Amino acid sequence: MTAAGIGRPAPELVPDGGTRPPGPGRALTGLRLVRLYLASRRVLACLLVLAACAVALRTALHWLPRTGTFSRQIPLIIEAGAAAAIGVTTRSPFGEPERATGVRLPVLRLGVSLALAGAALGALAAAASAHLAGGTVGLLRDLGGLTGVTLLAAAALGGALAWVGPIGYLAVTLPAVAGHWTSPWAWPARPPHDRGAAICAALVFAAGLAAVTLRGARDAPARE
Amino acid sequence: MTAATAPARPAPPRARRLPPAAGPARLLGIELRRSPMLWLLPVLAVLFYVSTYRPAMGNPPFWNIRGGMIQSHTMLVFAPLLAGAGAWVGSRDGRRGLADLVGMTAVPRWAGQVATWAAATIWAELLYLAGVGVLYAVTARQGAWGGPLWWPAAVGAATVAASCAVGFAAGARLPGRFTAGLAALVVFLALAGGAFAIQDNATYAQIWPLNVQGPFPPDSYGIFYPYLPDLAIAQVMFLAGLAAAALGVLGLPAGAGSRWLRAAAAAVTVAGLAAAGTAIGLAGTARVEPHGIVIPALHDAASDRPVPYTPVCSRGAVPVCLQPAYRAYLPDVTAALGPLLRQLAGLPGAPARVTQVVVTTVTSARENGIGFGGPVISGHPPVLYLPLSGLTLPGEGNTPAASFTANLRGQYGTAIVNDLVGLPSGSPAGTGVTGVNFELGPRHAAQFAIANALDQVLRLTGPWSVRPGARPPSRSLPAGTGANGAAASGSGTLAGSGAGAGSGAGAGSGAGAGGGAAPSAAQQQAAVDRFAALSAAARHAWLLTHLAALRAGRIALSEIP
After folding, report:
1. Which of A59, A73, B93, B409 is the most exposed place for a label (fewest CB within 10 A)?
2. Residue B531 belongs to what domain range?
3. Of A27-36, B58-67, B479-488, which gets the smallest average pLDDT?
4. Which of B35, B185, B196 sits opposite A84 (nearest CB)?
5. What angle, rounded to 10 degrees, do the helices at B536-551 and B445-458 form?
6. Residue A59 belongs to a domain
7. Residue B399 burial class via C-beta count within 10 angstroms: exposed 0-12, middle 13-18, buried 19 and up
8. In chain A, which among 79-108 make CB contacts under 8 A with chain B?
9. Which of A64, A73, A167 lies at the smallest CB-CB distance from B84?
10. pTM of the entire structure?
11. Which ipTM did the prediction report?
12. What is the total count of domains within chain A?
């Protein structure tokens, strides 16, 4: 035995003499990859959390008055919780080895982040959009912006601490809902059809999505 | 001499070693060095700056305003984040699958968990107290009168510990990737729910940790009278009990330690729950007093003694004296009320001096609101007791001095005039209450005319006009917030409506010169114009002679020069 063939994969792993698997095999491989990715990110648990947020929102709106500060603040907190759950799924349990070998990771990150954001919007809208002070448009803007903040926090702090982003942002801007700030960057405080606020929220969402897609969530610090 | 008899060389002194720390203390040292809370400190510092320091610098340097912010503003941000961080710290062993391993160490499991919580809490407390220290140091450098309020800082520190403890317990019992975010969300919702409950006038909700002094605005307590710590004591008791119960629960499982340790954990849990429950019960007995929230069981009568001070006074015919904390506003107050006071100086019943008071009257209002009475003239010689609580001071929220002066002149100047000429002046000023309607008959027409003329001459309420065709006051007077008759007329209407005037003609008391049919708007306006056209000396002389009759309603419109 020599070391001459050490750079080649084992023959049993390379069907048909080194060519890629045929069409159905590739599709199955792709599906398996997606399934494993979803499992490693605990997407199912995230969907359960989103469903719980939808139930909590519906319950809160049952007790809250239709107008006033609280009718806007408490739904925003629940939306922040949903966004935080999306951010937590960006954490990779594998870290550097996965980044070094996973060539399709950006596509998976983008797809899963978009799908979860859509699922959150759908769940919350189905639960309570008719009763929300800002309606579906306000929900789309606020949830999108908060998700963007979460994804940016995931890129900066790590997926495990991504929840710091929306919770911190909301804690700072929540008084603005009662104080009627005019800055579009405090979009939760702006009316649902405010164009500047919608643009800011969309920009933050796009930035967060781009950061997580291209770079991924920051690796967990050693001491965590 | 042999070596056997040689004196022994003294042994060099051994380097003194510190005895190794006991297990939990040593563990605490390790946890302090490796706590994940260290990673969050920069984020928390930035949030403290954004949520507390910057808004605080946008307000006047009053200890009560700054003190209230380090409790309410800071904790709104810190409590959810610290609960999440605590959950992240608490779930560490569970997430890594180390629970069994660390359960076999020499240090009991519960003691190890408490050490981990303590390390995270110590870092959070250090950051919070450093923020408080910086804010208070800057406030002291800005020349704030009095001393810092420590009770809001104590409640804040207790909230930090309780948030970490609740989150830690949640993380330890339910370790998982989502636990931290959910713990933060739950604490956030609990804070919002407390705000909702307190606005719904739920008395037990006074225990809410962000509640500084109930409905009182921040500049209305802690200056003239000591800061009432009743509510803060109950809040600290509640938060300490909550923290103790959350940590005690961790020591109940079989693997947490020996039997004695678990018994101690059970005792801590029960004591914590009892303390929290007692605090909630005490908060249910809280009531609104003129100087803050009073809980009878916790109240110290010494807190009811006013804080001694030497007032700062302006020079002039009618000196204006303010509490020294308001020294910077003396020129603004004098500029707002000086012209009016000079016009009224020497008249019977007119104030000979203006003295600032914290409040004149306090009334509770719906939705956790509060109403402060306006200025009151009383005593011999008459003194105008002037409350500034509830007014937006210059520099508060970027309020310019001109706006403060205009508000003071419009709200209190008109109240002073109304009080002097005999019109009702009990319209509440300040926050929460919007006004009341007064029953006024035609006999008040002359009083209205004089009040409106003085309003017009002294520009108390800004641009002044009478709506063409409006009828004179006869039935009811719509009053705005803190305004009065003259203020209402300043908006363009002397009376509510023609219908009201018509009905009022027959509803008047008929007493004095004003009895009978109500004068027309033209007659009213003519009287106003005549009196406003007089020189200041002539107005003063007429008022000196006729003020008593005017107050008694014995002056007719036609008698006004």
Report:
1. A59
2. 322-559
3. B479-488
4. B185
5. 150
6. yes
7. middle
8. 80-81, 84-85, 87-88, 91
9. A167
10. 0.80
11. 0.84
12. 1
